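Q: How do we represent a protein-ligand complex in a form that can be generated token by token?
A: Start from the inputs.
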Amino acid sequence: MDLLRIRGGTRLQGSVEISGAKNAALPILFAAILSDQKSHISNVPLLADIGTTLKVLDSLGLKTEFHLTDHKVVVDGSNLASVEAPYDLVRTMRASVLVLGPLLARKGEAKVSLPGGCAIGARPVDFHLSALEALGAKFEIEGGYIHANAPQGLRGGVMKLPFPSVGATENALMAAVLAKGASQIQNAACEPEIVDLAVALRSMGAKIAGEGTPTVKIEGVAKLDGMKHSVTADRIEAMTYLCAGLVTGGSVTALGIEEASMTSALQILTQMGAKVECAKSKITVSSTGALKSVSFTTEPFPGFPTDMQAQFMALLTQAQGESTITETIFENRFMHVSELIRLGAKISTQGNQAKVQGPVKLSGAIVMATDLRASASLIVAGLIAGGETVIRRIYHLDRGYENIEKKLSGLGAKITREKEK
Ligand code: EPZ
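Then emit the structure tokens for the protein with EPZ bound:
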């Protein structure tokens, strides 16, 4: 297994190219199942989860090619030979449950392993199933698998989501585009990745309106052409680098990202005293000296993103006073707290609330990554900690960050990737 070794204390300066968004690329690649033609997807990030997604598509019989040098993927949808997403692939990447909607839409059936929980929560899929039931799908859970059927094909319906679930909205959207008649998703998630999926589906000939708002309307069509789409930039990756620059007292510019994708988080940075400059397709965040403590609550978009919570917690260990973080999206998303405490942070948690005292001088130590964004928070902390921080189990990190040590080194960080002895 690999580890990252960071020597803290250097000020980060400069610009960093932001890769395509993992959480847009995954549903968009699964949407290629909807067409029997070739789909061309560009700006695909080089990530472990993308590799897993292509393995799932291959296991369904679709031919996939990943042209690594130019971040392009071609999916040939002509030979959809299987409707089963096997346990060993789904358990490595729970987003594989996003094959449900496309398989039901195209083949009227699907057999998908239940994803199971992960470090940050139980992650049930009940909202996905109830949405697809509104389009006529029937489900049986047996042997750890979801057996889905729509013998007469999917028909249009109203899908009322109890919570604006990102994944459930994506499955609902990908099912409705080929359903007979009109559909609506009510209380839909509004994340930028949902909008990007809708744009990709529209390039296939799908009829969608209202994406990015709580009510999405879809007019089913009989057939979809191959997709031609370039994946939107990764707002979570971008914010991770902006936090890294700020925590070191430096100034970092994220290239290829739009302010609208992270307004709420940028407002918190401004409240903390950072200088935020937004221009067309780039955002610069610079330190202006001491950071002020703040309080924030994670919410569905456009609220503060849960995927940025851990990185901000690391940043807030350097802010003056007590900050309060309330996590409302996942029930166990404070796994990074005990690792940050190993670096000297003063954090206490009570239920879904964490209180962070600062500023605290952090000192390097060996820490362990537990989930994707927790790993990112340990990097942010390691960049400011005195001495050396070693982060183990960074396979979590490789799921969602392309070449993170190269990008950070490019900003002046002293960071190396090594094989665990
Ligand atoms: C997506 O997960 C992202 N993953 C997550 O990013 C992100 O944290 C999350 O959305 C919230 O923004 C991908 O896009 C691949 P949800 P998803 O359905 O779709 C509960 C990362 O770090 N829920 O919006 O699984 C659920 O348990 C990852 O990149 C149900 O109860 O998130 C959670 O508490 C982590 N039943 C809440 O809703 C359901 O059927 C939000 O989940 C579905 C969800």
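The mean pLDDT is 96. The longest helix spans residues 235-247.
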